[in-house]
Specification:
This protein is of the alpha+beta class. It has ten helices and six strands. Helix 1 links the parallel strand 1 (2-7) and strand 2 (35-40). Helix 7 packs antiparallel against helix 8. The longest helix has 20 residues, at 197-216. The mean pLDDT is 94.
């Protein structure tokens, strides 16, 4: 089974959704057969490399609300995060353009390190307050997950993987994806948002049963004794 997940490293629900899916996979007997592909989705492709102010300032400007209202708006997300085992530090988050982070994830995918790269970047943004627009920071994250510093630096100083990010986003557009996280199972069945763990378990089981039925369905065939 494959699961394609469109998400952004600056999306708290994407982090929560990742945890919920992981919890569901821990309850899914066939988890070892599941391949996860992280797909790029920039919530704000036009964002500056680094936005002025902190996350609350960005939310205030975007939704035309006071800073206090922006802080209150994140409280329910913090509660959801805690329930999933995540300690969000929205006050420390550094709002940035996430293109470079997505490119790092694509680089990591070539080394079989895509999931760990996604995890490190989400943690860096939401709990460690790291600046993901900073080359040195991204190189450090790359090294921490097992990539060579020189490779990460040269990649991010070039246009490498920009087209890969755009291809993911075009695919999302074709699917009608307007919000993330967005999960597609076996290129057929979709879940949108940070669904409860049980919803992921039910979907995994349903897709698995459907796949088995398609594989084992009887039809005209030949065997060692001849053809039906």
């Amino acid at each position: 089974m494959t699961i394609d997940i469109w998400s952004d490293v600056a999306c708290p629900y994407c982090y929560i959704g990742k945890r919920h899916l992981e919890a569901a996979l821990a309850r899914f007997p066939q988890a070892e057969t599941v391949q996860i592909n992280w797909r790029s989705f920039e919530l704000d492709p036009q964002a500056p490399s680094k936005s002025p102010g902190d996350l609350y300032d960005v939310l205030s400007r975007k939704y035309r609300m006071s800073r206090t209202q922006a802080q209150e708006m994140t409280q329910s997300v913090e509660s959801m995060g805690r329930a999933a085992g995540l300690d969000f530090e929205f006050g420390k988050a550094v709002p940035v353009n996430t293109l470079a982070a997505h490119r790092l994830i694509h680089l990591a995918a070539e080394q079989g390190l895509q999931d760990v790269a996604k995890e490190h970047l989400l943690k860096a943004y939401f709990t460690e307050g790291k600046d993901l627009s900073n080359l040195e920071t991204l190189v450090s994250i790359g090294v921490a997950i097992g990539l060579e510093a020189g490779l990460v630096e040269s990649t991010l100083q070039s246009d490498a993987f920009v087209e890969s990010v755009r291809a993911d986003e075009e695919m999302a557009h074709q699917l009608g994806v307007q919000g993330v996280p967005f999960f597609v199972f076996d290129q057929k069945y979709a879940l949108r948002g940070a669904q409860p763990v049980d919803a992921f378990v039910q979907t995994l089981e349903a897709v698995w049963e459907k796949t088995k039925a398609e594989i084992t369905a009887d039809g005209e065939a030949c065997d060692v004794d001849g053809c039906d």
